[in-house]
């Protein structure tokens, strides 16, 4: 979503890239941030290895999060929209920092059983890579 300063946000379609640090390059995050700046992106979303540190890093002078500023989040939710939104195909997802007492896997519980199974299989593959 773009232009979130107005009452009705405007959907902005743009290509996105998903990059994985397969070779464990020490300067990978710095390179992603520099690419975001080079290609005039407002921000880049970073999930560091282990999943403990996740944040949006500002790569422009846009209002959110601001140039060279970080906004931390703890969870990625699928199927709902918010100010910080991205879409994978037609499925919206958003990044949030829920209260500690909130169940982090709330979105998983809502999935159909077949989908839960497929998500679990993919999670196991990713876990092996980490």
Describe what is shown at a glance.
The protein is an alpha+beta fold and 130 residues long. The protein contains 3 helices and 6 strands, in the order αββββββαα.
Residue-averaged pLDDT: 75
Supply the number of structural domains.
Answer: 2
> Strand arrangement, largest sheet?
1-2-3
Structural class: alpha+beta
Total strands: 6
Question: What is the makeup of the main sheet?
Answer: 3 strands, antiparallel
Report on this model:
By secondary structure, the chain is an alpha+beta fold. The protein folds into two domains: 97 residues, no CATH class; 30 residues. The protein is built from three helices and six strands; from the N terminus they run H-E-E-E-E-E-E-H-H. The protein starts with 27 loop residues before the first helix and ends with a helix. About 5% of the residues have low confidence.
Secondary structure layout:
Blueprint: H1 28-38, E1 43-47, E2 54-58, E3 70-72, E4 75-78, E5 85-88, E6 91-96, H2 106-109, H3 113-129
Antiparallel strand pairs: 1-2, 2-3, 4-6, 5-6
């Amino acid at each position: 979503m773009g232009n979130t300063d107005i009452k009705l946000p405007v959907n902005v379609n743009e290509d996105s890239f998903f990059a994985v640090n397969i070779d464990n390059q020490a300067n990978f995050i710095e390179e992603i941030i520099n690419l975001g700046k080079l290609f005039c992106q407002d921000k880049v979303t970073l999930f560091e290895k282990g999943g403990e540190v996740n944040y949006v890093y500002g790569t422009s002078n846009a209002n959110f999060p601001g140039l060279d500023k970080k906004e931390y989040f703890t969870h990625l939710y699928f199927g709902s929209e918010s100010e910080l939104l991205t879409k994978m195909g037609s499925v919206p997802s958003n990044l949030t920092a829920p209260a500690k007492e909130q169940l982090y896997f709330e979105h998983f519980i809502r999935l159909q059983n077949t989908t839960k199974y497929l998500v679990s299989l993919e999670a196991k593959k990713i876990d092996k890579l980490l």
